[in-house]
Amino acid sequence: MLANQLTYQRSAKISRRLTAEISGKGKKLSEIEQAEKTWEEKGESADKAEISAPSLADAVEFSTVMVEVYQDPAIRYQELYREKAITEYQTPFLTEVGNSFSDGWQMLEDLFIALTKYWSAFVICGIGYILFVKYFLSVKKMKAE
Fold it and tell me: How is residue 27 annotated by DSSP?
């Protein structure tokens, strides 16, 4: 807004001067125009300085500081001493109980399979026991009578 206001004031000043110069010295108009352009350029730089002055004043008043810091990336290794002892992993209690039941059931299966492999030997032993009991019991009864 300030820049537009200053440009407007400068343009109004130049047009008044040109009007006065044209009416007074019509022959040297090109020289006057060149001088006015130079004067306008200098006026623009003065306006820019005037526009930047409030922002600089704000920066000083509010103590605006801009700091840029750069550091090369660095990796640091450090060994730490741990006082707390780490216990070994132990399986949970219910998992251990489940594994025990599973192992016991497997043992029963193995026992049943082993017994079925030798079924003929058990049948022969059973027949022998029955004959032995009948023979000895009958012999004892006979002797007792």
Answer: T
Separation CA 102–CA 3 (nearest Å): 91
**Taking Cα atoms as reference points, which of 38, 47, 49 lies closest to residue 14?**
38
Rounded to an integer, what distance in angstroms lies between the CA atom of residue 39 and that of residue 14? 9
Paired tokens of 115: 């017994």
Two structure tokens written together for 47? 């306006």
Q: In Å, what is the CA distance from 79 to each residue of 73, 82, 85?
A: 20, 10, 16
| pTM to 2 decimal places | 0.30
pLDDT digits (tens, 9 = 90+) for 51-109: 776 776 777 777 767 788 888 888 888 888 878 877 888 899 999 999 999 999 999 99
Any residues with CB less than 8 A from the CB of 99 and at least 6 apart, and which?
91
Does the structure show a pLDDT above 90 at 10? no
